[in-house]
Design brief:
The chain is an alpha+beta fold. The chain folds into 2 domains: 5-15 and 61-138 and 266-276, Dihydrodipicolinate Reductase, domain 2; 140-261, no CATH class. The chain is 39% helix and 24% strand. The chain is built from 8 helices and 10 strands. It has helices at 5-18, 22-34, 38-57, 82-98, 139-142, 156-170, 188-198, 210-224, and strands at 67-74, 105-107, 111-114, 120-124, 130-137, 146-150, 178-186, 239-249, 254-261, 268-272. A 4-stranded mixed sheet has the order 4-1-5-10. The chain has a 4-stranded mixed sheet with strand order 6-9-7-8. Helix 1 (5-18) crosses helix 4 and helix 2 (22-34) runs antiparallel to helix 3. The longest helix is centred in the first third of the chain and has 20 residues, at 38-57.
Amino acid sequence: MKSDLEERVIDLVREANVSLKDDVLTLLKRAEKSEKNKRVKQALNVILENAAIAKRKNIAICQDTGLPLVFLEIGRDLKFDQRVIKKIKRGVTRGYKKWGFRASSTIPFKGGNAYNPDIVYTEFTQKKGLRVTIFPKGFGAENKSKLKMFSPTATYEEIDDFVVKAVKDAGAEACPPFFVGVGIGGTADFALMLAKKALLEELDKPNPDKFLNSWEERLYKKINKLEIGAMGWGGRFTCLKIRIKTYATHLAGLPVGVNISCHALRRASLVLKASEV
């Protein structure tokens, strides 16, 4: 097993872009099995076939290989500094080049493109070692992100309406069926980050928070009543899973962020010991 962080990230870039995780495939397969509309069922079959071909041939699931976001969980035994982030960025750059993935980032109004992820989220934990997650975020779905600063007196129904409208506005343009992340709390930017983190969890399992799990089930039913369906062709599954994460916020506000992923929810993680970093 390779122990050098940069080399491990190169492989992680490939894994994230060519291979859907088991939870995503499980939910896609459940939808395909349950779908009654023949045309929509065929669309889900094509989605699954595309994922299988990408993995078998070691090629990108989608031509939009996204803006590569990086989430780091830094353990208590790790000596962490800018050196670690530089290694990870070099690994992402080399990985995108090595595997032939498109460089999709550019400087607004100036042009040019690059592979380096300028967005690295760090979180210090009580665990040991370093967990690195690569999350290539395609912008067909990212462009449909929504944020609303609610009053602290907002009702569940008002928040539900906002989330459902965000999905409705995304429509077929963001390649449904969707995975929907919702972040509630913190500040405006933090709520949207929470919504992204929600999409990194194992989504084929219930939310361990029973209150949030019940809320997710209610929203899931409301979203699927939109009948946008796979690739906009209708049917039962506009949303494959919704996940809500919450955090403390100021008593004068209630930020709610919505982040959508297309059916190809791509992410991959690795955990290294301190000695491997």
